[in-house]
Every structure is written in structure tokens, then in C-alpha cells.
């Protein structure tokens, strides 16, 4: 018997002064049985940073043919392809070829530097690709705040993100600086 996804709800209020984006999103997030709380929360961070009315979570880990998040045009063309982690060269090629823009959000583990050194020269050839690294402490901090129903307030200004999750162990704002590698 296959394990089912666990459903989470997140009400997110975004104030993004860098992009002049101010909106609330009521998200339903399915966490795959093989996904941990840290990775799920990083998917939420990737959503927040790129928030748009048409940005959506995909089947992700359940389907190898789609990214973690994507934004499609009204004509069903992929405008934005978002991956988490350290995807293979084949996956990066697929994302860049099928979308107008691809973004990779790497999260801290010891293998990032090895992956980056190996892939950097190939990745810099792709004009529609951006690679960002998330701070080491972010995923564990956010994982401690996970609840089945979450209210999240976010402010983004001058490339910095302040994040507050109400009703959870995170009682003060978490400041996030996302480093761009390309």
C-alpha cells in the first residue's frame, strides 16, 4: 500500500517592496512521503520569493517530468521553472529548454560546493538560468515551525526577507539573505 501525501495549509501575506508585489496567498501544499519538513518549507520560500498569481506547486517528487514549482502563461507555456536542490545537468537542460526562465534554489549541505564547482562552467552558458543558495540555518529553523495550518507574514526589501510564522516556535522574524550565484 502506497503512502499518501500529507496536506498542509499556509496563509501567506507577502509584502515585496523590491518587486512592488503585495498579495495574500492561501496555499494547499501536499508533502510527498519522502519529503521532509525542511524541504517543504524551502518550497514555500521559493514560492514567496517568486510569488505570482499563476505560480503553483506541481506534483514535484511524485512526477519526474515537472519541476517543484512552475508558472504557466494563459496559453499553457512555462514561463518559470523552479527546482530545489542540486539537479542533474539533464534536468537543468530540460528546464531551460522548456521554460522562459529557470531558477534553482540550492539548500545548504556539504555537497553544494562540489556540485557548484562541477556544474558552474556549464550553467553559466544558460542565459535563462539563475542559481540561488539559501542560508544554512534557514531550513532547520523553518522546519521547527511547521504546523498543518500556518499563517506566514513576509516582508522583502533590498534583497532581504523577514519571515514570521504565527502560532509556531518561530517567535521572531527570521532574516533571510538569498545569495545569487550567476
Describe this structure as you would to a colleague.
The structure is a single chain. The chain has 182 residues and is of the alpha/beta class. It has one domain: Restriction endonuclease-like alpha-beta roll domain (Restriction endonuclease-like alpha-beta roll fold). The chain contains four helices and eleven strands, in the order ββαβββαβαβαββββ. The strands form two sheets. A six-stranded mixed beta sheet has the order 3-4-5-6-7-11. Strands 2-1-8-9-10 form a five-stranded mixed beta sheet, with helices on one face. Strand 8 (149-157) and strand 9 (160-166) form a beta hairpin. The longest helix has 13 residues, at 37-49. The model has no long low-confidence stretch (mean pLDDT 86).
Feature tags:
4 helices, alpha/beta, single chain, 6-stranded mixed beta sheet, Restriction endonuclease-like alpha-beta roll fold, 182 residues
Beginning-to-end CA distance, first to last residue: 44 Å
Number of structural units classed as domains: 1
What structural class is derived from the secondary structure elements? Answer: alpha/beta
Radius of gyration, in Å, reads 16 Å
Categorize the overall geometry: globular
Low-confidence stretches: none
Q: Can you count the helices?
A: 4
CATH homologous superfamily? Restriction endonuclease-like alpha-beta roll domain
Helix content, binned percent: 10-25%
Q: Give the strand content.
A: 35-45%
Strand order within the widest beta sheet: 3-4-5-6-7-11
Compute the average pLDDT. Answer: 86
Mind sketching the topology for me?
Layout: E1 6-16, E2 21-31, H1 37-49, E3 55-57, E4 69-72, E5 78-84, H2 89-98, E6 99-106, H3 112-123, E7 129-133, H4 138-143, E8 149-157, E9 160-166, E10 174-177, E11 179-180
Parallel strand pairs: 1-8, 5-6, 6-7
Antiparallel strand pairs: 1-2, 3-4, 4-5, 7-11, 8-9, 9-10
